[in-house]
Amino acid sequence: MAKVIAGMTISLDGFIADERGDHGMLYSDFEELDGPYLDEVREVTGAALMGRTTFDGAEDPDGYADGYEFQVPIVVLTHDPPAVEPKRNDRLFFSFVTAGVEAAVARAAELAGDRAVTVIGGADLNQQLLAAGLVDELWVDVMPVLLGDGLRLFERAPRLALEKLGVVDMGARTSLRFRVLRPG
Amino acid sequence: MAKVIAGMTISLDGFIADERGDHGMLYSDFEELDGPYLDEVREVTGAALMGRTTFDGAEDPDGYADGYEFQVPIVVLTHDPPAVEPKRNDRLFFSFVTAGVEAAVARAAELAGDRAVTVIGGADLNQQLLAAGLVDELWVDVMPVLLGDGLRLFERAPRLALEKLGVVDMGARTSLRFRVLRPG
Q1: Distance, in angstroms, between A177 CA and closest chain B CA?
Q2: Residue in B140, B157, B164 nearest the CB of A172
Q3: Burial class for A166, CB neighbours closer than 10 Å (0-12, 13-18, 19+)
Q4: I want to staple B104 with a disulfide (CB 3.0 to 4.6 A). Which of A7, A40, B92, B97 is the partner?
């Protein structure tokens, strides 16, 4: 089955957004090497998995088909699918899954083929996946900022040993990559 | 004035110890490259700064002079200095400072000479130093484990931009190093 890569970009103090839900402080003022970074993530990604809040973060859901950085099938875990299906193209289309996090992963794995399921966000989905033992790898990118408060990527995660796969040091961003070693 | 290097070793989810105060999970099961790692930290360290709980973490305070990994002057911030001064040697002796965090840093800087003041712990001292704007660099070492709960290194830190100085990837340990950019 396709492996599931969870994780997000965080501040050094562990937040994915500040207390106003603003992600901007994570990226502002830093030289971003998004090109090579995204190329690598895109290369391994066969399907994207996101929560409903992340999906709703787009101003216009039709915009995903027009220019989203991952042009792959996107699975959205939600209690309440949108009435109108967003625009699709040859590579990108949406599956809204209401049957829970395991069903969402199963659907995404089906769509990912021999590539990975990449978890786009948010924090809540990452936490659900970790709690359910559905995460194979964690890719956590640390940005050089302290936010002080906000939404944490990790809240009461299960106690898990990890195996470090590597560190990618690219400009302001440091990408830490781990394999999840499930407790025996 | 000697620069102040704060920071500690944390789990990927940001804890310096689990909910029982146990640091062991951060290190167990990992290949530790403590030799080269400590050599580097020792080389830059002119004086060590610690909180009282960290000082009390030693089974026997006389043991510091006999074999502590930092054989430099040690400043302890405390409300209540011990009645008996611990054993000292030619390089290592204690200064117990009760006049607050700024006084403790000033004393440590005096003792550090042209090398740095290295903050040994704990979380509370790190937080006080950050809040007071007394930190020049943050060296945060991430270990490959999720603890789920415990004592966080960063709790309501001031909002600060950092400049990444570098990443040292040594075995299980990833040392992230930043300069603190004080808000203008």
Answers
A1: 9
A2: B164
A3: exposed
A4: B97
Report the SS3 class of residue B161: strand
Name the fold adopted by A4-181: Dihydrofolate Reductase, subunit A (3.40.430)
Other beta carbons within 10 Å of A67: 7
Domain ranges of chain B: 4-181
ipTM score over 0.90, yes or no = yes
Query: Which residues in chain B touch residue A176, judged by CB atoms under 8 angstroms apart?
Result: 12, 142, 174
CA distance B52 to B139: 21
- Tens digit of pLDDT at every position of chain A (184 positions): 899 999 999 999 999 998 888 888 787 655 555 677 788 899 999 999 999 999 999 889 999 999 999 999 999 999 999 999 999 999 999 999 999 999 999 999 999 999 999 999 999 999 999 999 999 999 999 999 999 999 999 999 999 999 999 999 988 999 999 999 976 4
Task: Inspect the interface and report whether the beta carbons of A145 and B161 lie closer than 8 Å.
Answer: yes
**CA distance linking residue B19 with residue A120, whole number of Å:** 30
